[in-house]
Amino acid sequence: RLSTPGGDVPDMEDGLTYADMSCPIALFDTKQSTQEDREADDAAADNSKGYSKNTTRALAIVRRELQPVNGQPRAEPMSFVKMSEKATRRAAASFFFELLVLGTRDCVKLSQAGPFENIEVRAKDKLWERMPIPRAEREASAAPSMATSLGL
């Protein structure tokens, strides 16, 4: 469908659709197709204290977007509409589900003024507790590490 973001883009050779790579949630546009993928995700969930691979990815994105500036919490919330602007429906739905998981685990506060309106995401204290972050997201994070800032 042409009205669907990414809908005018043909499927890739493996049958997966993809979002614009400048979209921060494009990595959520995947199909879990093989038994190996499911077993890898189960192992990742076991290693991350009950958080699935997608939940830890969402956690990394939310942390990066809501990271405090100069030690002060951000005044403006993260916007779901902005995050999913160039995403496919699959990526947006998957990321939305992970936001619900993070909300259930008391990591973020989700609010929406009315039906079909923007969803605002605000950090809660539990978001900053030590939780697993996938290696790729740690390395891709633009935030400097504590060790670097301390000169270690």
UniProtKB/TrEMBL annotation:
Molecular function terms from GO: chromatin binding
Stretches the record annotates as Disordered: 29-51
GO terms classed as biological process: mitotic sister chromatid cohesion; replication-born double-strand break repair via sister chromatid exchange
One GO CC term, this protein: mitotic cohesin complex
Domain Rad21/Rec8-like protein C-terminal eukaryotic: 76-126
One Pfam family cited in the UniProt record for this chain: Rad21_Rec8
PANTHER family per the UniProt record, alphabetical: FI11703P (PTHR12585:SF69), SCC1 / RAD21 FAMILY MEMBER (PTHR12585)
Protein name: Rad21/Rec8-like protein C-terminal eukaryotic domain-containing protein
Organism: Exidia glandulosa HHB12029
